[in-house]
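[Q] Does anyone have a clean C-alpha cell version of this?
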Amino acid sequence: MASSLPLLLLVLCSLSVAQSQLKVFNLRASGLPSNILGTTDGYVKVFCGSATLGTTSIRNNDANPWWEEEFTHFKGQENDILRLEVFDSDFISDDLLGVCQRQIKPGTHKHDCFLKKGGSLHYFYTLV
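[A] Here you go.
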C-alpha cells in the first residue's frame, strides 16, 4: 500500500493562504493653514502597521488639496493601525501638520480627521 503523504503535501501546498488587501484612496484635505510664507504645500505619507505604503505628490499653494494616488497593501489585517501623516513641504524642512490613525476593519469606510496644526484630512479605505 502506497503512502498518501505525498498527495497530502501536494494538496496542502496548493491551498491558497487567505490574504487581506487594504486600499487607501480619495485623500483630500480642507482648511490647511496659511502663514506669512504662503499657503500650505501639502502632501501625505501613508503607513499600515510597520509598512510604508507611499507618499502623495505635493500640492503647492492649496489649502484644500485632493490627491489622485491610491495605496494598496496586500498584507493588511483587521486591527492593523492605518496612519496618515500630513505635511507642509518647505525649502528647509517639512512641517508635520497632523497625524490620523485608526485600527482598520473589513469593508469600505470614510473618515475625517482634524489635524493638530489646523485643517482636516478626509479619506476612504477598503479592507477585503
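[Q] Thanks! Anything notable?
[A] The two ends are 44 Å apart (CA to CA).
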